[in-house]
UniProtKB/TrEMBL annotation:
The keyword Transmembrane applies. Residues 169-351 form the Type VI secretion system component TssM1 N-terminal domain. It comes from Cedecea neteri. The keyword Transferase does not apply. Coiled coil: none annotated. It holds the Pfam family IcmF-related_N. The chain crosses the membrane at residues 38-61, 391-411. This is Type VI secretion system component TssM1 N-terminal domain-containing protein. Keywords: Membrane, Transmembrane, Transmembrane helix. Signal peptide: none annotated.
Length: 1136
C-alpha cells in the first residue's frame, strides 16, 4: 500500500513540476494559457513515448519482447552463418577495390551438378583460404573461391529447395550483394544428365528454379549481369571421356564452348539461337578428330564412337536451346536476361588417387577467359549498350543545335558596331549585355567574343568627358547643406546619402545596370565626377560604377560612410528621423468626429505603417554603414515608449475637445452603432488598439493597459457565461502565478476581476437600455428625460441617470486612485457615449417643450384675440405663461443666484433660448412656480411678523428704563495746564443736554458741588468747557452713550485732554502753546448709572438688529413687471 502511495505521489509531483515549468516558460514568453497547456501535454506525450521506446529497446535487447516486430530484421542461425561467410569474402573484395585491383566476381549457381567438385579440380591456386581446396566437399551455404585474378562465389544448391527459411536467407544474400560492386556475371551450372533426360518437364522445373533464384539479382542489376551457362558432368555423355582422353594435356586445359560478342536475342521459336555455338564446336571437334588418327589401344567400337562424336554431341542443341529459352526468354513473371557464353566441362578421377578428380576444359576458363570477359565488360560495357549509343548521338545532335543557335544569337549581338555609338547608346548596350548571364549556355561557345565586345563598349563609354571631384570637398558641402536644413529636409538628405552608399556598394559587387536603376537616383551633389548635361542618367550610372570599382571609388565610399555616421549621430534626440512626413497621411480626429477642428491630428509616423517606414529607414542606414549604429539601436529600443507617448498626448487632446457636449439629436443609425460598440468613440478606440497591437504587455503604459482591459471586457461580455468564467479564472491564475514567480507580495485580490466584469456588464446593460429607448422614440417627447433632473412622481427610473454612475463604478474597479492623464482620457471616450445619449434625450425633450409652448401659450393667445382688449390679453398671457411654467416647463427650470435658468445634467444644459430665460427671470419670480406654502415670500412674511413682535416687547422694556432717572453728584476742582503756561484756566463748566432741558455746573476753580439727573435715551449731549481769560474752549460728547462715556473718563477724578480733542477751539490752545489740559471732577457712586446704561443699550442693539432683519425681508421681494405680448418669443428652445 505504501509503495503504491509513494508511486502515485511521485508521479503527481512530476506532473506538477512539469506543469510549473511549462507555465514559467509560457509566462516568460507571453504565451496564451491554451498554448501552455498544449505544450505541457506535448512534453508529457514525448516523455511517455521516449520512455516507452527506451523500455521497449531494453526489452528487445534482453530478448523478452519484440520478437514478431523485429522478426524480419533479426538474423536466424542459418542467416548468421551465411552472413559470416559472406563478410569473409566481401571484406577481401572491398580491400582489393580500395587497392584499385580489378577482381571480377562471379556467382556460381547449380543444383547438385558437381560445381564444387569442378572448382576444386580446376588446378588453380587459391588465396585467402588455408583449407585444402582439392578436397571435394559439398557446399552447405557459401564458399568463396579466390583465384589469382578471379573470384567465384559458390552458392549452395540448398537455395534451390524453395523452403521459406532458405528463401529468406537468399533475400538476405541478394540484399548484401547490392551493397557490393556489380558482379561480373552469374554462372549457371546445368548437369548434362538433365539435358540427356527425355523428360523435358524435369529440365524445365530445374531451369525455372534457377531463374526464380536469379530474378532478384536481375531486377537489381539488369543488363549489367550477364549469364554464363556451364554444362557440367559431361563425362557422363557417351564418348565424351573417350574423346577427351585422346586430347593432349594442353588441350584439356583449354575451355570448350562459345562466347557471344553481343548478347543474342533469345526467342524459343528461333532454331538458330545456338547455331554459332554448335557450329564452332563441330568444326573444332572435326579438326581434332582428323588429328587423332587411329589409336592402337582402341577397339572398333570405341573408334567408331570417336569418329561419330562431333555429330553425336550436336544432338544436345535442341535440348540446350530449350533450356536457354526457359532461362533467358522474358515473360510476365521474369525479366529479360543477357546470355554471354556457354561452356562444357567435366571431371575425371586420378589414377593414383581415386578420391581426387581433375577437371577437363576448366583451367583456362577460370584462369583467363572469365577474367578477360569480366575486365572487358567493365571497360567497354557502357559503350556497347544501345541506349548509350543513342545517348551519344543525341548529345552530339544537341551540341550541334546548341552551337548553331548560339552562333545565331551571338551574331545578332556582335553585329553592333560599338566603336561608333554615342555614350547613351553604349550605356543601353551595356545594360542589354548585362541582362544575359555571363555563363548562359546560349552564349557560352562565343563568350570570349562577347566579352571583348563588352569591354570595348565600356572603354568607349568611360572616355566620355567628365571632371573629377574631390570627395572631401563635395561631401563637406553636402554635410553643411544637411546641417542647415529643416528636420524634414535633413531626413530626406540623410536617406538620400544612405541610398547612394547602398548603390555604390552594389556597384562594387557587380550589380547590373537594370538592378541599379531600381534604386533611388543618386543626387548630383554626391556624384564622383561632374558630367555633361547631355549624358543620360543610365550613362552616368555606368560611368559611376566603373570609377566606384577603382581604389579612388573605395575611398569615396569609405568617406561617404563616415559622413553618414556623423550625420546620423549629430542629433542625439533624432528629431530629423521622427519629423512629420507626407508619405503617410496624419490621423485626423475629424474623421471620427466631424465637429472637431482639423488641427487635431497625429503624425502618420506613429502608426503601424509609419513604424514600418521608420524601421525601413533605420535598416537602410545600418545597411549603408555596414554595421549597427548604437543611436539607432537605442531608438528602436525606446520606440514603443515614444509611440505610446505620442498616442497618449493625442488621446488627451481629443478627449479635451470632447469633454463639452451640447444637446443635439443622434440619428437612428448612430444609435444602433452605439449599441453595437461601434460609435465614433469606440471606433477610435479600436483604431488605437489596432495601431498599438505590437506593444507587448511589459512595454504597455497604464493608459494602454486600461484600454486593453476594457477591450478584453467587451470581448468577454459577448461570450457565453462559461467562457467568461473560464477567462476570469485564467486571468486570476496567470496573475497569481506571475506574482508568485516574481516574489511580489502586493498581489491582486483573487476576486478582483469578477466585480470588474459585473460592473462592465452593468454599464453595457444600462447603455443598451438607454440606446433602446432612444431608438424606439418617435416624435419628440419628454419621456427620455423623465427623472433626469429630479425624481418624477411615479418613481419610474431613467437609464440615463445610471450611465455615469455605472461608468464611475467600472472606473473604480479598474483604475482606483488614478492620477494619470492618459487613463483619464481613456475614460472620457467611454463617457462621451453616455454624454451623447444624455444630450440626445435633452434635445428631444426641449424640442417637445418648444412644441408645448406654441400649443399652450402662443396658439391660445392668437385664438379669438379680437374679442379681448389689451388688458384682457395681458391678463390671459400672464395666466397662460404661469400655467406653462408650473406645468411642462417646471422640470426644465431651476433656480440659481440670478433667478430661474435652464436645468443641466452632467454639465449639459437644456438649450432654452436667452429670450425665454430673460422672460421668466424678469416677469415671473421663481417662487411663483411653487405652492403658496412653499414660497419664500410666505416664509418671509411669517418671519417679519415674529420679528415685529419681538421689537415691540424690547421697546416696552426700553421705555420703562427711560422713564427712570439716576442722580449723580459732581465735585469740581481747579483745572490746570500740566507743565505750566502763560495762560491758566479760570474755571470749568459741565453741561448735560436732555429732552427736558439743560443742566449746567459752573465752577471758577473752587471746590463746588452740583447734582445731575440722567435718563437713558433722553440725554444725548455732554459738553465740558474750560474758561480762559478772553476765550473758552469746549469738548463735546454726542449720542445716547455721551453721559456714560463722560462718567467712565472721570472715574479717577481727573482727565487729561489733548488740545486736538477740543475741536474747532484747538487752534486757540495751540496759539497759546497749550498742548494738554488737566480737568478735575470728582464723581459720586456711578455703578447704578452704568448698570442702567448697559441694560438700556443692550435692548437698543437688539431692536436695531431686528429692524435690520425686518428691512431685509421687506426688500427681498423684487417688483416684477408684466412683459409685453410682443416680447413673447416664438421658440423657447434651440431645436435644429
Amino acid at each position: 500500500m505504501l509503495k503504491k502511495l509513494a508511486c502515485f505521489t511521485g508521479w503527481l509531483l512530476v506532473l506538477c513540476l512539469s506543469l510549473l515549468f511549462s507555465f514559467t516558460l509560457g509566462l516568460w514568453q507571453d504565451w496564451r494559457t491554451s498554448s501552455i497547456l498544449v505544450f505541457w501535454l506535448l512534453m508529457l506525450l514525448i516523455t511517455v513515448l521516449l520512455w516507452c521506446v527506451g523500455h521497449t529497446l531494453v526489452l528487445v535487447i534482453k530478448g523478452k519482447k519484440g520478437r514478431r516486430l523485429f522478426e524480419k530484421f533479426r538474423l536466424s542461425r542459418r542467416e548468421f552463418v551465411l552472413k559470416a561467410h559472406w563478410k569473409t569474402g566481401a571484406s577481401i573484395i572491398k580491400r582489393a577495390r580500395r587497392q584499385r585491383e580489378k577482381l571480377p566476381l562471379y556467382l556460381l549457381l547449380g543444383d547438385r551438378c558437381g560445381k564444387s567438385t569442378l572448382l576444386a579440380s580446376a588446378g588453380l591456386p587459391t588465396f585467402y583460404n588455408d583449407a585444402d581446396d582439392t578436397l571435394i566437399r559439398p557446399t552447405r551455404t557459401l564458399r568463396w573461391w579466390f583465384f589469382r585474378q578471379l573470384c567465384v562465389l559458390d552458392v549452395s544448391s540448398n537455395f534451390l529447395s524453395g523452403s521459406p527459411a532458405v528463401a529468406q536467407a537468399w533475400k538476405r544474400l541478394v540484399q548484401w550483394c547490392t551493397s557490393m560492386p556489380a558482379p561480373a556475371g552469374v554462372i549457371i551450372a546445368i548437369p548434362v544428365t538433365s539435358l540427356l533426360n527425355p523428360d523435358l518437364s524435369a529440365l524445365h522445373a530445374l531451369i525455372r528454379q534457377q531463374r526464380a533464384l536469379l530474378e532478384p539479382l536481375v531486377r537489381r542489376f539488369g543488363e549489367q549481369l550477364p549469364l554464363h551457362i556451364l554444362i557440367t558432368q559431361c563425362d557422363r555423355f557417351p564418348g565424351f571421356s573417350l574423346w577427351a582422353q585422346q586430347l593432349s594435356p594442353e588441350q584439356r586445359l583449354q575451355p570448350l564452348g562459345y562466347t557471344w560478342s553481343h548478347p543474342p536475342h533469345i526467342d524459343g521459336q528461333d532454331e538458330q539461337i545456338l547455331h554459332p555455338l554448335f557450329s564452332a564446336l563441330k568444326q573444332g571437334m572435326s579438326r581434332v578428330r582428323l588429328s587423332m588418327g587411329r589409336s592402337v589401344g582402341l577397339t572398333a567400337t570405341e573408334d567408331a564412337t570417336l569418329l561419330d562424336f562431333p555429330e553425336t554431341f550436336s544432338r544436345l542443341e535442341p535440348v540446350l536451346r530449350y533450356a536457354v529459352a526457359s532461362l533467358c526468354e522474358p515473360n510476365a513473371y521474369f525479366r529479360h536476361t543477357s546470355l554471354s557464353s556457354i561452356w562444357f566441362c567435366a571431371t575425371e578421377p586420378l589414377d593414383e588417387n581415386r578420391s581426387r578428380r581433375t577437371g577437363l576444359f576448366v583451367h583456362h576458363l577460370f584462369a583467363n577467359h572469365l577474367k578477360d570477359l569480366g575486365l572487358r565488360r567493365s571497360k567497354q560495357r557502357w559503350l556497347h549498350r544501345p541506349h548509350v549509343k543513342k545517348a551519344c548521338v543525341l548529345a552530339l545532335s544537341l551540341a550541334a543545335v546548341w552551337i548553331t543557335v548560339s552562333a545565331w544569337l551571338s551574331y545578332e549581338y556582335l553585329q553592333t558596331n560599338v566603336r561608333q555609338q554615342s555614350p547613351d547608346n553604349l550605356a543601353k548596350f551595356l545594360a542589354k549585355d548585362e541582362q544575359r548571364h555571363h555563363l548562359s549556355l546560349r552564349y557560352l561557345p562565343f563568350l570570349p567574343l562577347i566579352e571583348e565586345q563588352r569591354q570595348i563598349a565600356e572603354t568607349r563609354l568611360i572616355q566620355s568627358p567628365s571632371t573629377k571631384r574631390k570627395p572631401q570637398v563635395s561631401l563637406d558641402a553636402y554635410q553643411w547643406q544637411v546641417l542647415r536644413a529643416a528636420p524634414e529636409e535633413q531626413r530626406d538628405l540623410i536617406l538620400s546619402l544612405a541610398d547612394a552608399v547602398i548603390t555604390w556598394q552594389q556597384m562594387r559587387t557587380g550589380v547590373t545596370l537594370d538592378e541599379l536603376q531600381n534604386n533611388p537616383p543618386v543626387k548630383k551633389a554626391l556624384l564622383q565626377r561632374k558630367y555633361s548635361q547631355k549624358l543620360s542618367p543610365l550613362s552616368i550610372m555606368a560611368i559611376e560604377r566603373h570609377y566606384m570599382r577603382t581604389p579612388e571609388g573605395e575611398r569615396w565610399l569609405f568617406t561617404a560612410q563616415r559622413l553618414l555616421e556623423t550625420l546620423v549621430n549629430h542629433d542625439p534626440a533624432l528629431q530629423w528621423l521622427v519629423a512629420p512626413e507626407v508619405m503617410h497621411h496624419p490621423l485626423q480626429a475629424a474623421a471620427w468626429w466631424p465637429s472637431l477642428p482639423d488641427s487635431i491630428t497625429l503624425s502618420g509616423l506613429w502608426t503601424l505603417e509609419g513604424e514600418k517606414t521608420l524601421f525601413g529607414w533605420i535598416s537602410t542606414l545600418e545597411k549603408a554603414v555596414a554595421h549597427p549604429l548604437p543611436i539607432l539601436t537605442q531608438e528602436k529600443t525606446r520606440w514603443p515608449t515614444r509611440r505610446q507617448d505620442a498616442w497618449r498626448q493625442y488621446l488627451i487632446e481629443v478627449s479635451a475637445h470632447l469633454s463639452s457636449v451640447s444637446p443635439s439629436g443622434i440619428p437612428r443609425t448612430q444609435l444602433v452603432a452605439m449599441g453595437q460598440n461601434k460609435s465614433s468613440a469606440m471606433q477610435f478606440v479600436h483604431r488605437t488598439l489596432h495601431e498599438l497591437q505590437d506593444i507587448t504587455v511589459p512595454q504597455a503604459q497604464p493608459w494602454l493597459q486600461t484600454l486593453r482591459q476594457l477591450q478584453q471586457l467587451s470581448t468577454e461580455a459577448n461570450a457565453s457565461a462559461m467562457v467568461r468564467r473560464t477567462t476570469q479564472i485564467d486571468r486570476q491564475v496567470r496573475q497569481s502565478l506571475t506574482d508568485w514567480l516574481q516574489g511580489s507580495r502586493d498581489t491582486k485580490m483573487p476576486g478582483r476581476a469578477a466585480p470588474a466584469d459585473r460592473a462592465w456588464l452593468h454599464w453595457q446593460t444600462v447603455r443598451n437600455k438607454a440606446v433602446k429607448e432612444a431608438v424606439s422614440q418617435g416624435a419628440p417627447d419628454a419621456h427620455l428625460t423623465r427623472a433626469l433632473f429630479a425624481k418624477n412622481e411615479n418613481g419610474d427610473g431613467n437609464p440615463i441617470t445610471d450611465l455615469l454612475p455605472a461608468l464611475t463604478a467600472l472606473q473604480e474597479h479598474l483604475t482606483p486612485q488614478n492620477t494619470d492623464a492618459g487613463v483619464n482620457a481613456v475614460w472620457l471616450f467611454y463617457q462621451n457615449d453616455a454624454q451623447r445619449l444624455a444630450a440626445n434625450a435633452i434635445h428631444q425633450s426641449t424640442c417637445w417643450l418648444n412644441e408645448q409652448w406654441k400649443r399652450s401659450v402662443i396658439w391660445p393667445l392668437g385664438k379669438n384675440n379680437d374679442t379681448r382688449d389689451y388688458e384682457q390679453q395681458q391678463a390671459l398671457s400672464q395666466q397662460l405663461i404661469g400655467d406653462f411654467l408650473r406645468g411642462p416647463a417646471n422640470a426644465f427650470l431651476e433656480k440659481d443666484k440670478s433667478g430661474l435658468s435652464a436645468v443641466s445634467f452632467a454639465g449639459i444644459h437644456a438649450p432654452l433660448t436667452a429670450e425665454f430665460i430673460h422672460l421668466v427671470r424678469h416677469s415671473y419670480p421663481a417662487e411663483k412656480l411653487l405652492d403658496i406654502q412653499e414660497r419664500e415670500s410666505t416664509r418671509d412674511e411669517d418671519q417679519i411678523t415674529a420679528l415685529v413682535a419681538k421689537v415691540a416687547a424690547l421697546e416696552a422694556e426700553q421705555n420703562a428704563l427711560s422713564k427712570k432717572s439716576w442722580k449723580l453728584n459732581i465735585n469740581s476742582m481747579p483745572a490746570t495746564v500740566p507743565g505750566g503756561a502763560q495762560l491758566v484756566p479760570t474755571g470749568t463748566q459741565l453741561t448735560l443736554s436732555c429732552q427736558n432741558g439743560e443742566q449746567k455746573f459752573i465752577s471758577m476753580n473752587f471746590a463746588d458741588t452740583h447734582g445731575f439727573s440722567w435718563q437713558p435715551g433722553h440725554c444725548t449731549d455732554v459738553t465740558v468747557s474750560v474758561m480762559f481769560p478772553g476765550f473758552t474752549v469746549h469738548h463735546r460728547l454726542y449720542g445716547e452713550d455721551a453721559w456714560p462715556t463722560f462718567i467712565r473718563r472721570f472715574t479717577s477724578g481727573e482727565a487729561l485732554f489733548q488740545s486736538s480733542e477740543f475741536g474747532e477751539d484747538a487752534d486757540l490752545l495751540e496759539q497759546t502753546g497749550i498742548k494738554h489740559l488737566l480737568v478735575r471732577f470728582a464723581l459720586s457712586e456711578t455703578n447704578e448709572i452704568e448698570t442702567a446704561w448697559q441694560a438700556w443699550y443692550a435692548r437698543a442693539q437688539n431692536i436695531d438688529e431686528l429692524n435690520t432683519q425686518i428691512a431685509d425681508l421687506a426688500f427681498r421681494s423684487e417688483q416684477h413687471t408684466n412683459t409685453p405680448i410682443s416680447a413673447l418669443p416664438g421658440d423657447i428652445a434651440q431645436c435644429n
